[in-house]
Structure prediction request, 808 residues.
Amino acid sequence: MNDSSPRAACTLTWEAVVLDADTDEGIPGAQLVLQPAGGKSPSFVRSERDGRVEVTGLCPGTMRVRVSKAEHASLALEVAVEVPQRQADVEPTIIELEGLHDHHSAHVIVIHDESPTNVAASESLAGAELARARGQGLADTLSNMSGVTTLRGPAGGMGKPIIRGQFGRRNAIVVDGVRHEGQEWGLDHAPEVDPYAAGRITVIKGAGTIRFGPDAVGGVVLLEGLPLPRRPGLSGEVSSVGFSNPLGGGGAARIDWAPARGRGFAMRVEGNLARHRAAMTPTYALDNTGASTWNAGTRLGYASELADVEVGYHLMRSRLGICTCLRVSSPDEFQLSIDRRGPVNLDLYTADFTLDRPRQEIWHHVAFAHARVMLAQAGELHVTYAFQFDDRQEFDIVRGDIQGPQLRFGLATHSADLRFEHSAVHMGTWALVGTLGASASQQRNEFESASSLIPDYRQWSWGIYDVERFVHERVELEIGARYDGLHRLALLSERDYLGQDAGGRLDPSRCDRASAGDGGRCTHQFHTPSLSLGVLGRPIRRVPEFSWRTQLDSSARIPAIDEQFMNGAAPSFPILGFGDAKIGVERSWGGETSLQYDGDWLFVEAAAYATYIDDYIYFVPQPQTGQCAPLTCTTRGPFPVFAFVPTDALFGGGEVRFDLTAPRLPFGLSGSAAWVRALDLDSRSYLAFVPADRYALAGRYFWPDTKVSSRGYLELNGTVVARQTRVDPELDFAPAPPAYVLLGAGAGVEFAAAQQLVHVSVVGTNLLNQRYREYNSLLRYFADEPGWGLQLRVSVDFDVPRARGAAV
Prediction:
């Protein structure tokens, strides 16, 4: 029964509780956009600490509600606001948000009363924070995390993440539960990953070898897509981004659909594209550093209480120009570019969209299938199969009558992962949870070139592991063990085999020639155990927000194909690199400890770590003597020489980060600091390519929500990078660049409409137009980093809600 009198019309109250669908716990700080009946302007409210929401002054009718919270999937619904017949009939509306840690996530386990926490240090990007990084490469997206920097390459601004001083093959990248496999042997080869498709990105710092394999000795990057919708309806996002330096832009779209007549089924179609021209330093253009990239993907899933099934496909296409500045005709020209702090022919450089030689062109295909099955009260069984094909072509500067690439790589990978997450076993006040798993993969790489670089190879690997955690109210203990095996068959051409054999870089006991002219075959077998022990404690009962973590681990990493057999130079970064087939497994012994306080308005974390690595595989510059010193003379011109050398190494460092949101004040302050130290114990010198000390500070002002806007902010930030003084000058081609300071700023706001939520943000980088070079950039021998730039991002979330009645 409705009361239509003016007095009763707009005096109704609506109550709701926002819950996490996995834990049934209230979600604090969730934003609700309310679109009242009658076309009135939307309003904004936020849930309390227990997830409760109360809205007064409502009119009768159907009200549209959109709920969003970082690390959760957004939800739209319709609520019938009516005058209750009896006050006792009034019950709050229950709103359940699906967490991004859906059933395919390996590192979130839900126990009824005990909630385990990650023992290893980790940091995540999701929601608005991740949205502000849209349009950037993976390494740049992660570079604002403490302890994470970028090994920047010369191709289109791409790079690799460095986690606590470790980069490339020492960091595992896992996308939607599938370990990423690509041509990562080159220092400049960025991972073929699309961060646009991720709903959350988590970096696990420190060894993650037990769960993710022997390569994860430095850390793990987890990219998780938004879970498919479980409620009927149509939703999605359309966004665009524009950059001033490098000048360009792009757009993206995602559409999710769950049919009303096919409960449990859902599908997604998504894609994005971007194009930008060559970047500009403060004084000249970085000629031929433009890029063109597009991604497309789809997935289809069925979800029920007993089983989930999901299949999908993703395609990435990239064309990346290589800076012309890398080409030098003589050692004198190389030295002149260092002394002048600029390329020799910079007057000829232009900033345009044309992608000339040298350049890279990449196709990366991923097809996958996931399944989760409930095994009664025993637990859950997860099965994943994936096929990846990475097609990389590299184009060198050649005569005008030569067409096509000079190098082509085709890497095909089949992988399977099986894991069983057993249910909690209660033992008094303790609970035991854990995961038992196995993985296997098969790789086949084909290399096409007139010169040698990386041989064809066939590779089979497998691993088994077990991670068990004892959970108590104030203490959690975690024990993990893993065992891996790998069989590798390298097929060397005749010329390659003879050259490496003459240089003493092959192991005669593992390599042989079938007959003259047929090249050679090298077979290697590896077996590596890994162990970890961790503890998490909350030592102060009255302060549960304070915790202490400690982890000890022993991990083993199997040498990659380039570390054993690299023999030549690539157009993407012209260095002459040499591997050594006699290189064996590197074994690390490490530990870390951290203190954390995670309160309502203050978050503080301090961590320290140390790792000793036996037979650390070190890719180190080899300055030459003679006519072309410090380079070496070849028929293709002068090249810097690098070689893989085993040595004993010691890594150590620390990180501090904090996030302060002043209570009852519209201000926030956040900051971080990171230090890494690395020693070559054999030569008693410093290791190369170790990040310099880095400090960051950001202040933010939050302006009040209005009837039409919410989450508005203004931000000013700064980054200070010290000069890397811990270097061995005899093992580098140029002195470490000086320290620098970068100033940035940003602003953002959200606007709500009937069925849409519009996000707008603008970010400025290097606003002082600082001229600088980054120690961890391969470009630093030749040119400066880009100057100031602006990025404008606009996105629209839309949701066609389902009808849902709730008497108020």
